[in-house]
Specification:
With 493 residues, this protein is of the alpha+beta class. The chain folds into three domains: 3-228, Rossmann fold (3-Layer(aba) Sandwich), CATH 3.40.50; 253-357, no CATH class; 365-492, no CATH class. It has 16 helices and 25 strands. A seven-stranded mixed beta sheet has the order 5-6-4-1-2-3-25, with helices on both faces. It starts with a helix and ends with a strand.
């Protein structure tokens, strides 16, 4: 028996159940959704769950077809066959990936995948991905080579809030080789993505050229780096606790007081700004732009209204105008596409944060629309935002009888609240969207569906991602339905 086979003996249904008992709230009385690519990792995850599953465990799988590879349809067919063999329900989600200018195809596909997975996840359901120790090692090294801060070096957490439920990664302590041995022992097959051979991609180059040499010299590198990532995550948590105090002291609604920020030492100031930005669900700016916010923007004249913009933290932007420590000129960083990215702007003594997509949307779209859904189950949204569909579905999450005859459709302005769970408090939509892991540009475009009467305005739904508890179906619901938001270029089957 080889070393890998001996190690693989620890992997299997019993081991996985033990991992999930410590990760998934309520396991095994819980709903699990496996992100199934068809590769060896997700095949091992789904198969191990399907074997001897407890009767109380609700298990299903989702496959995302990006349509990027010639074999995409064959991969989807393979996943269907595997799911039938394991007697697990499978849903295939199809999307069209269109990278923004300067965005890699990999990043665009990842964002599209997680957006679809988030919108498909039921309230309280746990999404399982098959990331393993080799993935964690690659992630930490790539973040290190890119000059990431502590948040990036902390890599992938085993459990995190996601959309209406949770995202869990139970295989982070197993290697790909261990999973492959187990899958072979079960007599299962898997698909191989030929794009993994493309060494022009950083992750593939690291995996194929660099890591074999690292493992030869340091066999325990994956375990050691994972341990370091946990230490980094603890250090980041301490910095976040300090930043939370500083941000709450400076908060004025969703804005920050410039006067209060200026009183902070420069390292705490940068830490607070970074926390404020990432807590709102945006990627932090690069070092130069963060220093520009902490310096020239805060020091500018109150009537200058300076701003700094960036495209999700990448470097594909062009700086125009000059920053001035004396506040005499505008501190502007503009991207080539006004609809993509983030803006921090000074308005007198207040610092505001907003997605440029929202700025563009507010300038071009109607302030609100009315959808009489009982007359028409489809509604086309403006500005290329796709369409809404409300259909009858005996298993749907919506109580159709609890809905108004017409929805008022708006977009985010700030301060919105919604109660996603029965009996729970009404929570800030800002926080709920942060937990959803939806890309920044998508959050600005999410249609908000309201019930509006002369005496009350109430947020009922955020696209097909979040539902207020007052319209969620219960055991006594007679007429159920399902709301779908279908962005342009996306469909489902």
């Amino acid at each position: 028996m080889t070393r890998h086979q001996q190690a693989a003996g620890a992997f299997g249904p019993d081991w996985l159940a033990g991992q999930l008992a410590g990760l998934a709230p309520g396991f095994p009385n819980v709903a699990l959704c496996v992100a199934l690519s068809g590769g060896v990792d997700s095949t091992a995850l789904l198969a191990a769950l399907a074997v001897h599953r407890p009767r109380s465990l609700r298990l299903r799988a989702v496959h995302v077809d990006h349509g990027l590879r010639p074999a995409a349809k064959q991969w989807a067919a393979h996943c269907r066959a595997l799911a039938r063999r394991l007697r697990v329900p499978l849903r295939v989600l199809v999307t069209k990936v269109e990278p923004a200018r300067g965005e890699s195809l990999e990043a665009a596909a990842r964002d599209a995948r997680y957006r679809l997975l988030a919108t498909d996840l039921a309230p309280g359901e746990v999404l399982l991905t098959a990331h393993h120790s080799d993935d964690q090692l690659e992630t930490v090294l790539l973040q290190l080579l890119r000059g990431s801060g502590l948040r990036g070096l902390a890599a992938m957490p085993p459990l995190a809030p996601f959309a209406n439920g949770w995202l869990a990664r139970p295989l982070l302590s197993r290697s790909r080789a261990e999973l492959e041995v187990w899958v072979r022992e079960q007599g299962l097959s898997w698909v191989e993505d030929d794009s993994n051979d493309d060494e022009s991609l950083d992750r593939n180059y690291l995996r194929r050229r660099v890591l074999p040499l690292v493992r030869e010299r340091w066999p325990g590198s994956a375990t050691a780096v994972a341990r370091s990532a946990r230490h980094v995550a603890e250090a980041q948590a301490l910095l976040d606790a300090l930043a939370r105090v500083d941000v709450e002291r400076a908060s004025y609604g969703e804005s920050l007081s410039v006067k209060t920020l200026r009183a902070l030492p420069v390292d705490r100031l940068r830490n607070a700004l970074r926390f404020w930005i990432t807590r709102s669900g945006y990627l932090a700016p690069d070092t130069r732009r963060l220093e520009e916010i902490a310096g020239p923007l805060l020091d500018a004249r109150e009537d200058a209204n300076p701003f700094v913009e960036w495209r999700g933290g990448d470097n594909d932007t062009r700086r125009r105008g000059q920053s001035s420590a004396r506040g005499g000129a505008r501190a502007n960083v503009r991207s080539n596409d006004v609809r993509d990215g983030v803006r921090v702007q000074r308005h007198g003594d207040l610092l505001t944060l907003q997605a440029r997509a929202m700025i563009h949307l507010h300038a071009t779209a109607p302030s609100e629309l009315v959808w009489s859904w009982r007359a028409s189950g489809n509604f086309n949204l403006p500005d290329g935002l796709g369409k809404l569909e409300l259909e009858r579905d005996d298993l749907g999450p919506i109580d159709l009888d609890a809905l108004p005859n017409a929805f008022t459709i708006r977009w985010r302005r700030g301060g919105e609240r919604l109660s996603p769970r029965a009996g729970g408090p009404r929570r800030m939509l800002k926080r709920l969207l942060q937990e959803s892991h939806i890309p920044v540009t998508e959050r600005a475009r999410l249609p908000l569906l309201y019930s509006v009467t002369p005496s009350e305005e109430k947020l009922l739904a955020v696209a097909d991602l979040l539902l207020d508890a007052t319209v969620q179906a219960t055991a006594t619901t007679r007429h159920r339905g399902r709301l779908l938001w279908i962005p342009s270029g996306t469909h489902r089957r």
